[in-house]
Amino acid sequence: MDTLRVQNVASERDNIESIPAEFVRLETEQPGITTVQGIQLEVPIIDFSNPDEEKVMHEIVEASREWGMFQIVNHEIPSQAIKNLQDVGTAFFELPQEEKEQYAKDPDSSSIEGYGTMLQKEVDGKKGWVDHLFHKIWPPSDINYRFWPKNPPSYREANEEYGKHLHGVVDKLLKSMSIGLGLEGDELKEYGGGDKMVHLLKINYYPPCPCPDLVLGVPGHTDMCFITILVPNHVQGLQASRDDHWYDVKYIPNALVIHIGDQIEIASNGKYKAVLHRTTVSKEETRFSWPVFIEPQPDHVIGPHPKLVNQDNPPKYKSKMYKDYAYCKLNKIPQ
Ligand SMILES: O=C(O)CCC(=O)C(=O)O
Ligand SMILES: [Fe+2]
Known about the structure:
Layout: H1 6-12, H2 31-34, E1 35-41, E2 45-47, H3 53-66, E3 69-73, H4 79-93, H5 97-101, E4 114-116, E5 131-138, H6 155-180, H7 187-192, E6 198-206, E7 227-232, E8 238-242, E9 245-249, E10 256-260, H8 262-267, E11 277-279, E12 287-295, E13 301-302, E14 320-321, H9 322-330
Parallel strand pairs: 1-9, 2-3
Antiparallel strand pairs: 3-10, 4-5, 5-6, 6-12, 7-10, 7-12, 8-9, 8-11, 13-14
Bound molecules: 2-oxoglutaric acid and fe (ii) ion.
2-oxoglutaric acid binds at residues 202, 204, 218, 223, 230, 232, 237-238, 277, 279, 289, 291.
């Protein structure tokens, strides 16, 4: 069983200035060497309270084409709902280790739900400086409460409340992206499975690290889902790749960070681009993030949308069941 937790490695290092070798990245990846210093990437910031809906839609479409990442401000999710989500998640990671292990992911199950440490198989055997908790928050019939912490007692209520507010944001984003492809407003969401699309919550826990220039939290990747809606805590750490260089993405309090994932890139036949991103960690502070991955059901087939391909625009991607896509991605097998 996978019991090495980065949280334990970090707490043993309180007075030590070195880290185990498996966390030290190759020089081609080390953030101290590969981050463009002194510039924060100004990814598009979209104001959801703008009464000009056409403009907001246009901004979403442009950002999805040009950046694959943007931030939404003045959205409908109350800041208290975000704070509650953050407070209960933070409290979970502060529980005694034995209690967290009760939620450990089942090593014999193909599901990624639960408390764990390593997700992607890394080719060079390196490890990310991060622990995580995964559980579904939608649809109700797919929720397994075994992976929802019982402590703190308000964990469930806070997650349900945040999850409830998320639907409006998802619908607005997918509607705009659908129209931007020349489809009807509801067609992209329906193509992904409509209201059966899974909302998978992840909490990333990045403890302080004595050598932040040498390690990565989550190494460079694109998200495999449709779209990701993420809130971080206040600690800088998200980076995006632009023109083959890594930049810090500006932290904006209360903003929602949106990532275009692989399945939207595929469904749009390449019009929208999944964003390459990674995370760094801090020497002094614990960073957290709460991405929610909006993804098709495991047996649902996604390929380029049939209305977007023809003789002049042949499909650029294969059609695949989402679970097969995910298996290849997690095991680094070519799609
Ligand atoms: O922590 C973050 O800001 C991003 C995490 C991430 O990219 C992921 O979990 O897929
Ligand atoms: Fe990601």
